[in-house]
Design goal:
The complex is a heterodimer.
Chain A: H1 2-28, H2 37-55, H3 59-88, H4 93-112, E1 117-118, E2 130-133, E3 136-139, H5 140-162, H6 164-174, H7 186-211, E4 213-214, H8 219-233, H9 238-258, H10 261-278
Antiparallel strand pairs in A: 1-4, 2-3
Helix pairs in contact in A: 1-5, 1-7, 1-8, 1-9, 2-3, 2-4, 2-7, 2-8, 3-7, 5-6, 5-7, 6-7, 8-9, 8-10, 9-10
Chain B: E1 6-17, E2 20-31, E3 35-39, H1 46-54, E4 61-66, E5 69-70, H2 76-82, E6 84-87, H3 99-106, H4 116-126, H5 128-132, H6 143-156, E7 161-165, H7 173-188, E8 192-196, H8 200-206, E9 209-214, E10 217-223, H9 224-229, H10 231-238
Parallel strand pairs in B: 3-8, 3-9, 6-7, 7-8
Antiparallel strand pairs in B: 1-2, 1-4, 4-5, 9-10
Classes of the chains: A mainly alpha, B alpha/beta.
Chain lengths: 288, 240
């Protein structure tokens, strides 16, 4: 039982970074709900897979290739497509982003086929092993998941709080018109923000790929989780993403173990609906 | 009026905003190191003119030149880069960010980051109350303090032309006087100022030159001192 709880908490960190990416895009880009976020996670899985198999890199090191690539893809998508629609017909964003997600998913399906893959076999030194902490035995990868997630969140926190671009992103999220009066090109900020959000999704994807298996069609699963994470934890808060992620991870782990995976998603979504009804801003969020 | 070059030159612009013709045939010249007042009733188009100069709106007709270069077709962040800085009506602070962070946003463009710490020090000397509240969220400040922060933020941007849009609106009389004093201190620094303010008499007292607007046009322009002195003018235009 305690193993299940710990595993849930640890993998919840990864769900937290995926949720953080979604939250960042939502608050930073005029409330754009990135409905292709799940596909970005899966894209991370597959890009890592190719980097690992083609370049013989360790999955964790593959991030050095995958993340810059995903950042550029995110930049390009926002700048060339989403910006245009957003600034002329804001309601057109969701269909557009949905379409982008579908294209990514089907692209992956064509390239890689429908069979499930995993990064675990490519990291035998840590992904296949267990470790024992205080008498509790756990797959090592879960601990790595959590440490990586914490590191990523600290990095995002420092970036947003102490760099000029980070401050510009925060200012743009609050008042995208006024920032222009101080030399900030808001359209460029949206592109950078989307890039960062996509990178966080892809990073989550790498760890998901190491912890579980993945298929091109799994996108909607991760979108649902990311959504639950930010509703529970609160939009616009890094702490909220972490706490939301841990809760989702816990619920998943406990429900899967005691009831069954299909019910796990049902329970997760029920809890999300209840929180939406009672306290929509989540634990740490601000009123949107 | 001690002036060298014309810093800002507006030539016969027409401006539409959401399908309504708001400004008609506006022409204006602002000389360096002067303070120009833009005066008129609500709805006359003063804020629209400021927004147009900043590039948030583009004129249908006519040109706007800054230091001789056309800026009327540039995006607003480029215009801000050039040194045309607004203190927006309603302050438009980043309320969720701290006082210090708002000030740092003032010098976002890389060219303005050079003497950041020095500038911050000077701003804190000019606005001691902001130094005290450095790490407080901007939204928690009082009305007057927020206005000071808005002005200070714009000063951090090293403005060549500073446009103050209704910086005393909604403030208590004593606080308004503090703001006018600050504007005077800023004047002394040699910054060119375009001032929009509801208090006609005070605006004319602070400024060197004035443009009076009504219904989207300029109805009168002249040296502020002369307008103030002319009792008939004051009565006819302002009922004062």
């Amino acid at each position: 039982m305690i193993e299940v709880i710990l595993m849930g908490i640890f993998v919840g960190g990864v769900y937290g970074i995926v949720g953080l990416g979604l939250s960042l895009i939502f608050t930073g880009i005029r409330y754009t709900m990135n409905v292709s976020h799940g596909q970005m996670v899966v894209l991370g899985c597959y890009l890592s897979f190719s980097t690992v198999t083609l370049l013989r890199l360790d999955p964790l090191l593959s991030a050095l290739v995958v993340l810059p690539v995903v950042f550029c893809i995110g930049l390009a998508l926002q700048y060339s497509l989403i910006n245009r629609v957003m600034l002329r017909e804001p309601a057109g964003r969701i269909p557009l982003i949905l379409g982008i997600g579908l294209i990514v998913e089907n692209f992956l399906l064509i390239l890689y086929g429908p069979d499930a893959k995993s990064l675990t076999p490519y990291a035998p030194s840590y992904a296949g092993r267990s470790i024992t902490l205080f008498g509790i035995s756990l797959p090592f990868i879960y601990l790595i998941d959590f440490i990586a997630a914490m590191a990523a969140m600290i990095f995002v926190y420092i970036f947003l709080k102490y760099t000029f671009i980070g401050r510009a992103i925060r200012a743009t999220s609050e008042d995208p018109i006024t920032v222009n009066l101080f030399g900030v090109n808001d359209k460029r900020m949206y592109a950078i923000t989307f890039g960062i959000g996509a990178v966080l999704a892809a990073l989550g994807g790498i760890f998901v790929g190491l912890t579980y298996a993945f298929e091109p069609s799994y996108g909607h699963i991760y979108l649902g989780m990311a959504f639950s994470v930010i509703i529970l934890g609160g939009i616009g808060s890094i702490r909220g993403a972490l706490v939301g992620g841990v809760i989702v991870g816990l619920v998943q782990a406990l429900a899967s173990y005691y009831i069954g995976i299909a019910y796990a998603f049902l329970i997760q979504n029920l809890i999300t609906l209840i929180v939406l009804y009672l306290k929509p801003e989540g634990i740490f969020g601000y009123e949107v | 009026m001690n002036s060298e070059d014309v810093l800002l030159e507006i030539n016969n612009i027409d401006v539409s905003y959401e399908y309504i013709d708001v400004l008609r045939d506006i022409s204006m010249k602002i000389h360096e190191r002067t303070t120009v007042a833009l005066v008129g009733p609500n709805g006359a188009g003063k804020s629209t003119l400021i927004k147009t100069i900043s590039g948030l709106i583009h004129p249908k007709k006519g040109t706007i030149k800054f230091k001789g270069e056309r800026i009327d077709h540039l995006p607003p962040w480029r215009i801000a880069d050039l040194g045309v800085i607004q203190v927006p009506e309603g302050r438009k602070l980043f309320t969720r960010m701290t006082v210090k962070e708002n000030l740092l946003m003032g010098c976002y463009p890389k060219t303005k980051r050079k003497n950041m710490t020095q500038k911050l020090k000077e701003i804190y000397e000019l606005f001691p109350v902001l130094a005290e509240r450095e790490n407080q969220k901007a939204g928690t400040l009082s009305g007057g303090e927020q206005q000071m922060l808005a002005i200070a933020r714009s000063l951090m941007a090293d403005p060549k032309l500073l446009m103050l849009d209704e910086v005393t609106l909604g403030l208590a009389p004593k606080v308004r006087e503090d703001i006018y004093k600050k504007v005077d201190e800023i004047k002394q620094l040699g910054i060119t100022i375009l001032l929009v303010d509801e208090n006609i008499k005070r605006s004319l007292e602070i400024s060197d030159y004035a443009y009076i607007m009504g219904s989207g046009r300029i109805t009168l322009e002249g040296r502020s001192k002369e307008i103030l002195k002319s009792k008939e003018l004051m009565k006819a235009y302002f009922g004062v």
